[in-house]
Design brief:
The chain has helices at 27-59, 61-73, 85-95, 151-162, 166-192, 198-201, 203-207, 215-243, 248-258, 298-310, 365-378, 384-410, 436-452, 454-478, and strands at 100-105, 114-119, 127-132, 139-145, 317-320, 329-333, 344-348, 353-358. The protein is α+β, with helices and mostly antiparallel strands and 479 residues long. It has an eight-stranded antiparallel sheet. The protein contains 14 helices and eight strands. Residues 1-19, 280-285 and 287-292 have low confidence and may be disordered. A hairpin with a 6-residue loop joins β3 (127-132) and β4. The two termini are 34 Å apart. Helices cover 50% and strands 9% of the residues.
Amino acid sequence: MSQRTEIPRHDHDPTDIPTERPARSWTEVRHLLVRLHFYAGVLVAPFLLVAAVTGLAYTFTPQLDRLVYGDRLRVERVGDEVRPLTEQISAARAAHPEGTLASVITPPGPEDTTRVVLAVPELGENQRTVFVDPYTAEVRGELTTWFGSTPLTTWLDDLHRNLHLGDTGRLYSEVAASWLWVAVVGGLVLWLGRGRGRRARSARGVLLPDRTAKGVRRTRGRHAAAGVWLALGLLFLSATGLTWSQYGGERFGRLLDAANGNAPALDTALPGAGAPAGDHSEHAGHGGSAGATADADPADFDAALAAARSAGLGGTVEVTPPADAASAWVVAQTDNTWPVHYDRVAVDTTSGEVTSRTRWADHPALNKLSKLGVQGHMGVLFGIANQIALALLALGLTAVIVWGYLMWWQRRPTRGDRPARAGRAPERGAWRRIPLPALVLGVPAVAALGWALPVLGVTLAGFLVVDAVVGAVRRRRTA
């Protein structure tokens, strides 16, 4: 009678590698996933926690801006007649003659100010934005802005993206975004694939923790059930965060180029004027001057705006002067709240004609998904509802992380001869026992994923190296 090969399970040292040939089994895939989920939780969770806390602070920047800068951002509506841009720009330039006119942004609402954006060389990539009452042409104040963001919003944005550490700090947020989906998907597979009991298979057992459980089982139920409720939102944050990350975002940009998924270019060349200076970006004014060395005629702002309104561009728009005499003015819709409006037109202010136009409806689907995803990630796409959803996700992720560390502590050995401050890691060596088809398919897939998400690939390789070194040291001590 043949005997089944047994895999030794030593309580005294879970890092031991059996000397007998391991028996391959698909159940070992789960054991490998448990170990990966454990290390992702222990080592990456601090990055996720920082991202959740800083993201929560950034979520409510619209309200914070109104609280801190309300005297500049808001006005009391006086009738329905708005002063021409010519008067508003002249008032802004009289108060702030420095720099050059980069763009003018019309008020988003009837109680908002007009923004006259100035490119000032000593500010670098920042701008000086002058806020003007559209009804009286009175200057309400100025701020140093970055791509239209107030100093407070810019500070919180930098805190969330890079902890005010520049490009080096951006690695923290990319680590968090790269591993968040791995932790979520791994946790879902483990929770949904656990046990075969009636409760484990029921919707209630998946979505709600077992109230009768005690200790680590109760904590695990809360951790997993909360993860199920948060899963879609967290996957959304991971995917959208990666689209503009430092390294994964560069790969995503290549994908857009290969799939012709970039926004259509606006032809800014004036008819018969020779070669154009190039397409203006959607927020050219926010980034500084459009290449001009002197102010454009304020009256031309009104002419460009009138032509754009006649062409059907409603809502808040940004009017940007041409970079040179051979280029047209650009008027771009900047309405980021659903339903968004991102049409753009090129205008010849001499004739008042629209020379070129790009429509949001003509953007490729991949570009639309990317842009809408970014706005949703920033909490502006659906207004206050978007902000509340992001806040709940941040608080929920924080709770899941805390419960994860609590489980680690609850699983610690408590016997008098083997006390420890935290639980042991799941058993090492499961990859040696998974079926060959899983290895043949899995290794190339992981390699491809590591190329697409370089930070994920490098950190995963680092985890494997450290794990191998720790295992070797422990085996040597045991021997």
